[in-house]
Amino acid sequence: MAMVQITDARKSYEGGFEALRGVNLSIEQGEILALLGPNGAGKTTLISAICGITQPTSGLIQVGGHDVVRDYRKARALVGLVPQEINLEPFAKVRSTVEFSRGLFGLKRDDALIERILRQLSLWDKRDNSVRELSGGMKRRVLIAKALAHEPRVLFLDEPTAGVDVELRRDMWDVVAEMKRDGVTIILTTHYIEEAEAIADRVGVINKGQILLVEEKASLMQRMGQKTLRIELTDPIDAIPSSLNEYALIRAEDGGLIYTYDTRAERTGIGRLMADLSEAGLHVRDVSTAQNSLEDIFVGLVAQQEDAA
């Protein structure tokens, strides 16, 4: 059974706006899913519905087999959430803030666990400071510590590293990697697509309240990615010979050529292109290839949906 199971989830607001439009999603135990989408795509609404912060208008959402509406307490006990907004009691001490979060779930005091979490997030030296004395980045660390205090089996990270320092980002991914080894399921929303590319097992793309795609990161890159071949010529050209029109080449700023080909194709056409370049009197000095990034694929998917609307 999936750790998080979403079936035809919808969320409508007064006035008819649909924030979620029939979302279906299954997330397995111990996997990291990166959920990508532009502002207003429905990422935060979806997370809020799973965490019980907002109720779906219709559909079924389960966490660990528990319905988030009918069995709210059991479902919520399994979930840790690091929200975008920093909303902390300014005069509370760091350690007591994290301990209190654990107590909200009715769990026994565990000083060793709290110390380990605070050390992981470089907060131990600040444990007796009040929250208002901390920088924005350190407050973000406290939010993460609060989310981990009750040992959740599902952790939601809603834009957790937006506007924070590189050191925090590195600490965050170290914690995420350790939790994954412990079998924790992690759902990450981010604008930093390179982070999703580096850490996720699967990538989901959401826009206008709909899931456009959920796929293993590696197979997504292979299935939808393209490679670009940059061709440096011995003698730069001002125009592409008409005899090479079938290759849809682009002239580079340095007078070389750019050739894009599909990695799924049985033949890339590179061998024939090289022969035709020679036939056209063009001499190749060097070639290099680059794989399309996840960002290229993401932008393409969103554009396709816009075109179809």
TrEMBL record:
Superkingdom in the source lineage: Bacteria
Gene: ybhF_2
Keywords: ATP-binding, Nucleotide-binding, Transport
Record protein name field: Putative ABC transporter ATP-binding protein YbhF
Stretches assigned to the ABC transporter domain: 4-233
One protein family per Pfam: ABC_tran
The species this protein was found in: Tropicibacter naphthalenivorans
GO molecular function: ATP binding; ATP hydrolysis activity
Annotated InterPro entries: AAA+_ATPase, ABC_transporter-like_ATP-bd, ABC_transporter-like_CS, ABC_transporter_ATP-binding, P-loop_NTPase
